[in-house]
Amino acid sequence: MFVYIVRRLMQTIPVVIGVTILVFSMMHLVPGNPAQIIAGESASPTQVAQMEERLGLNDPLPVQYFSYVGNAVTGDLGNSIRSGNAVTDEIFSRLPVTIELALYSTFLSIFIGLIAGVISATKRYTFTDAAIMIVALFGLSMPNFWLGLMLVQYFSLPPLQWFPVTGWGTPQHIVLPVLTLGTAGAAIIARMTRSSMLDVINQDYIRTARAKGVKERIIIYKHALRNALIPVVTVVGLQFGVLLGGTVIIEQVFAINGLGRLVIEAISARDFPVVQGSVLVIALMFVLVNLLVDLSYRFLNKRIELD
Amino acid sequence: MSDKQNTIIDVNELQTSFFVDGKEVKAVDGVTFDVPSGKTLGIVGESGSGKSITSLSIMRLINNPGKIKGGEINFNGENLLDKSEAQMRKIRGNQISMIFQEPMTSLNPVFTVADQIGEAVMIHQKLSKKKAREKSLEMLKLVGIPSPEKRLDNYPHELSGGMRQRVMIAIALACRPELLIADEPTTALDVTIQAQILRLIRNLQEELGMSVILITHDLGVVAETCDYVAVMYAGKIVEYADVNTLFRDPKHPYTVGLLKSLPRHDIDMEGDLSTIKGMVPTPDNMPKGCRFAPRCPFARDMCRENLPHLEDEGDGNQVRCWIHTDQWDGPEVNVKDDYESAASKQS
Amino acid sequence: MAETTPNQPVTKPPSPFVENFKTVMKKLKKNKAAMIGGYMIIFFFLVSIIGPWLTVHPVTTPDLTNRFAPPSTENWFGTDNFGRDIFTRIVHGMSITLYIGFASVAIGAFFGVLIGVISGYYGKKIDSVLMRIMDVLLAFPGILLALAIVTVLGGSLQNVVIAVAIFSIPMFARIVRGSTLAVRKLEYVDAVRALGATDVRIIFRHILPNIMSPIIVQATLRIATAVLTASALSYLGLGAQPPTPEWGAMLSDGRAYMWDSLHLTLFPGLAIVAVVLAFNIFGDGLRDALDPKLKD
Question: How far apart are CA C167 and CA C159, in angstroms?
Fold first, then answer.
């Protein structure tokens, strides 16, 4: 296991390097002179030249890259063009909300997805199964931002007015964004759980459990589910990433001041250091989550040989 | 048949079918046999003969799209087919246990050996977790697993195939069942391990005084292990006899064919290994008369037209063949001695 | 090359895809949901081709006398904030949606398959380099990669297609690599190589036809994802620009008025759901029919 952890960590290194290169290149791939963009449209050529000097844009690209990474490691991702504040500060003031939103949504999708998937599998080919799978298919096929709009329309406006339209903070604020963001994940986890359960239920060891006289409910929840969960774990990890990406748009829909909204605001203001920094942080978080998922997968699936 | 008092289980006209695409496939079609207490019955047949479905039917472990359609399974005088699911659960793993063909996949990969053995006694004997663990250790010792204390906390993937089958036996015997059903318990194992496992089952049977139904396709295994033999073909029993009679004086042409195809080391092989010509009939192409008729070297029109009954031969042994009835309209036949010459004339 | 060899001893086994086409169609026909999905897709194509000829209202010309009209026999889905007929705009937007779905998946599949085949066929260094690059692309969760690309390229319909295409590449590359590895191990590929067939020929004649099934299944399901991703980018104002009748952009426009006039957001959203649903259902059915491993 230890060898595996080390090897898996080693595999992560080139990915992290690749991510930083890509994020670094963003600035240089944008049409136009970054110094001009940062200094502003109306800046004089002298001001632009000063800005180029300050940003080190006259250095060779590899030098610029290493200084970018070097600064990033010490927590310096540059300054926002809009506010002048440190990008790191802007990001970390927004990050907790986004993590909260993504985590709650992940929990919701796991909770609903697992229950629905197990029910669907145990009631295979019945009306209940068909109904759950059809709902899941719709959940998977709806644009999440549109679902958010429709939920707001129904639950936040008169006559119901159960939840606030926008914002974040109280438990009431949390319900609709989390429901919006978690629906697709719940649908995917439900489908995955169902097929995984159906696969497991036909295994010989389930027959062994039945032959022992174990109750059907215990067979489902103890013997089968434990095994069926193993492939679901991977999906959950991937879903967390998708949800992290999804916060960008859901935060926009519900006007939640998280990292996702920061990205969108920065894009429309052409505040590239902030875009760069946020994208970098989100990508690195996702890499970390995938790492953890892989490790737990390995831990859960004791049958995988350590090759 | 032997009298009822000494019979642990008595299966009567059992019918189990599978319903696929609106069609009925009769996997077990009127199977009748019994197992004398404390004895071992071998059920022999090729794959697809219905022998495994018979054993799963006794356990009432037939799932959709399968269904037990009729007959009786009298266990200690009570019909298992009349029991509720809850009553059956109290019997499974407690009074009747089963071990399966594939030790590699029959153990749950996410639970330890101790968990899996202990579960049965925790359910049926309401033992505490600690007591169940002691029981597991005792069972591992019983089935002859070396350094059993260490093995308790192993996961199945840490054990060899032979050891897993020993663990399966430990699970099955943990509650001291009266009847053990072993479905091809050695097929998936190496030859040397096969002999060990069979010897283990045999020894434990004597030690615990239980009855055993051994499902196999291998007559060699039957000769070593069983007291009685039921030969199954295409969902029906074609011959039932005690093991000595069956090997000395087989009556059904199919039994003879099976025996002839056994490799013999004591005599020189003359010509080719005698195998039975043709294929087991598929359920959608079941012969109208005797199901073995299309492959039988002695088959006549009466065989192809009419299904013979399982007739008692007077000594408790039974055979399902027209040759052994008064109605037989062909020349006098000694199935065992004439089989080869008749088979060689078969096209 | 093999054609010029006088007696060709090794014949290529017929492509399992072509071989099984009939069985696949049979299985598909049995799968009611998949058939519904298929018919829906055909219907959407017909709408995108014929529909614009049948609508009577202008697509982009505002009619300020008829703003926010609720659904009626005249304006089936009502009118928007510029008084334009929403039904007409949805019908005209169909071709845009299908274009985004197919174009981005076609581009993504092309490069993904290329990378996957090269990776799986040549293995070793090339494989690990290409796969690490794919890992880097996959490290950007969900829509974020597309968002970053559109940021760099600027917001437009074309750039959305490119962004969604790039976002699809790693999925195809991974699947194709796995399938290529499996096919490469088959004996006849060795035999063909022993006959002197070039790598390009082996890849195109022998490997690609064998891995068509997973590619087609993945492409169908990816179209659904592509449509969703593109609509999200447009909703954020980074995709198709007004007055293009793109559905995501319509949702973005309608949002400000949804409290009073729900039809501005309801119908374009339903249109997206219908298209995505059709491709998801059809993709599921295809997978069941083409990939026996995955049937339940």
Answer: 12
**Distance, CA of C61 to CA of C68 (rounded, Å):** 15
- Amino acid residing at B32: T
Give residue C106's domain range.
30-56+76-290
Residue C16 lies in a domain: no
Q: Is the ipTM of this complex over 0.95?
A: no
User: Which residue in A26, A141, A243, A284 has the most chain C C-beta atoms within 10 A of its own C-beta, making it the best mutation to test that interface?
Assistant: A141
Is the pLDDT reported for residue B314 higher than 80?
Answer: no
Backbone torsions φ then ψ of A88, nearest 5 degrees: -55, -45
* Radius of gyration of chain C, Cα coordinates, nearest whole angstrom: 23
Instruction: Please tell me what DSSP assigns to residue A41.
Output: T
pLDDT in tens, C82-134: 889 889 999 999 999 999 999 999 999 999 999 999 998 888 899 989 998 99
Residue A230, both tokens: 């193993």
Burial call B203-228: b when 16+ CB within 10 Å, e when fewer: ebbeeeebbbbbbbbbbebbbebbbb
Q: Give the per-residue pLDDT at C4.
A: 41
State the pLDDT confidence band at C16, using cuts at 50, 70 and 90: low
Do the beta carbons of residue A256 and residue A168 sit within 8 Å? Answer: yes
Banded model confidence at residue B270, pLDDT cuts 50, 70, 90: very low
Test A137 with C262 for CB contact under 8 angstroms.
Answer: no
Size (chain B), residues: 347
CATH of the domain at C88: 1.10.3720.10
- CA B276 to chain A, closest CA, distance in angstroms equals 32
Contact partners of C by the rule of 3+ C-beta pairs under 8 A? A
Inform me whether the C-beta atom of residue A39 falls under 8 Å from chain C C-beta atoms.
no
Q: Indicate whether C214 belongs to any domain.
A: yes
Tokens representing residue B185 in the block: 């318990």
Provide the pLDDT for residue B10. 92
Interface of B with A (CB under 8 A): 59, 61, 88-94, 97-98, 100, 102, 105-111, 119-120, 123-124, 155, 157, 168, 171-172
Whether residue C178 lies inside any domain: the answer is yes
Domain count, chain C: 1
A215: closest CA of chain C, how far (Å): 24
CA dihedral for A92, A93, A94, A96, sign (positive or negative): positive
Q: Would you say residue C83 lies in a domain? A: yes
Nearest residue in chain C measured CA to CA from A240? C141
Position B268 scores a pLDDT of 46
pLDDT at residue B301 above 50? yes
Please give the full DSSP string across A111-170, using - where no structure is assigned: HHHHHHHHHHHHTTTSHHHHHHHHHHHHHHHS-HHHHHHHHIIIIISTTT--S-SS--SS
